[in-house]
Amino acid sequence: MFDIAVKKKLHSSQGDMLLDISLSVPKGSFVSLYGKSGAGKTSLLKMLAGLVEPEAGHIRSSGEVWFDRARRINLAPQKRNIGFVFQDYALFPNMTVRKNLAFVAPHKAAGHSINEILESTGLLRLADRYPGTLSGGQQQRVALARALVRSPELLLLDEPLSSLDHEMRVRLQDELARIHRNFGLTTILVSHEPSEIYRLSDWVAELHLGQLVRQGAPDEIFHHQEITGKIQLVGEVLEILPNDIVFIAKVISGNRILKVVVTGEEAAVLKAGDKVLVTSKAFNPVLVKI
Amino acid sequence: MNNWEPLLLSFRLSFITTVILLLIGVPLAYTMAYSRSRLKPVWESLVSLPLVLPPSVLGFYLLLAFSPNNAFGRFLEQYLNLRLIFTFEGLVFASVLYSLPFMVHPLQAGFQHLSPSLKEASYTLGISPLKTFLHVLLPNIKPALLSGIVLTFAHTVGEFGVVLMIGGNIPGVSRVASIAVYDEVESMNYAAANFYALVLVGISFAILLALYGLNRKFVHKIF
């Protein structure tokens, strides 16, 4: 069990705010910190890692004290058994993939387990490449593999998938879930992507302006806002064409053009250039696996 | 018969100055790059001062400070047996001060250019600050290190005013190439002046070319 209670005044782009958060994270759980940017998610993560010192409170990891203001204890990041994956991956550019892992291995004899980790993350054939020559998804994998070398008890992920495309994202989400299980980790993920949180985590803590506003299982948290039976798209009318007794409106939404059937009365009040909302009720969308 | 002594003296002075500045400059630049002290602008101004001061001003104050007639000079002479006026040691000391910004600025920029998460990642992976500094941060500012070395070396070879003020023109001690050029021109000995000048131009160009060539190679290898 990780027992967290921290306070610190933060200076953000929106002005000063007080980060004041108490949270318990059970061993083996996958917790997501959710909220808008500037809510204090990354700051909280850095406090857990020992990179930012809280002004008050404590952080305990099953009996071991990492931080306790009252007792003047503040373990250095090196002394906390954690893995941290940064948003920009923070791979060491001067070292090959293998060296990135070997450099942080606790002792020399760990070469064997480095091969295992490289293999289980699908990186063995990239082992002698430099990070600068890898794609975003590959760099992300290396960062994750490197964080696992010291068999951390707590894995901290700071929006690790935010700069990847959708397909790579989904693949790495599966991989994250698998690693979390296989390595018996406790994981805390910072994300503002409900779908990602929904897929991965079993507990969500929502932050707003430094405060913990809600926490619960993902379907409780997202039940009323992002998850809805309706589909809504915002678009712009391109043109309206008569077709027998009805009209067809062409609507552009994002980079797709949708055709929507409208009646004569509806067509009469619409013209090209109008902003419209395309909605669909829960019972007619059809899901097809791709 | 050409006299190589002033040229050798110039390069010896530049070499020693560069080595000393590397040892001082790296920790100084690192501290300044990551410092959040309110006094940081003061330190930055002090480091940059030799950049804007006329060399004669710097030389003048060093001359006063080192003079055995004043407290600091007397202290150096009595307790450390060190005389810095009209000696090679004095030139080294003055050159270190004079070329300080040329070493510190590129290094500081190099450190500031690195993503802060590089250092943080290393710490969270259990690597000590010293090991992080030596194996993660320093190797990734190689281009900045090279710029610092090249600029410091070249700037020290080209120094004139400070040397003249506190070193004078003593053959084998403080008569460096730039002074020798001036001296030969003064005595209308243009052939000798041309010899020094030409060698300076040639060697300086060769050094710069070699180092910038290397720099390109580093950049290509890593990025």
How would you describe this protein?
- The complex is a heterodimer of chains A (290) and B (223).
- The longest helix of chain A is centred in the middle third of the chain and has 17 residues, at 166-182.
- Chain A has two domains: 2-220, Rossmann fold, CATH 3.40.50; 231-280, OB fold (Dihydrolipoamide Acetyltransferase, E2P) (Beta Barrel).
- The relative contact order of chain A is 0.13.
- Chain A has helices spanning 41-49, 97-104, 111-120, 136-148, 166-182, 194-200, 218-221, 264-269, and strands spanning 2-12, 15-25, 30-34, 56-61, 64-68, 73-74, 82-85, 154-158, 186-191, 203-208, 211-216, 231-243, 246-253, 256-262, 275-280.
- Chain A is built from eight helices and 15 strands.
- Chain A starts with a strand and ends in a 10-residue tail after the last strand.
- Chain B contains eleven helices and no strands.
- In chain B, helix 6 (116-124) crosses helix 7 (129-137).
- Chain B has one domain: Orthogonal Bundle (MetI-like fold), CATH 1.10.3720.
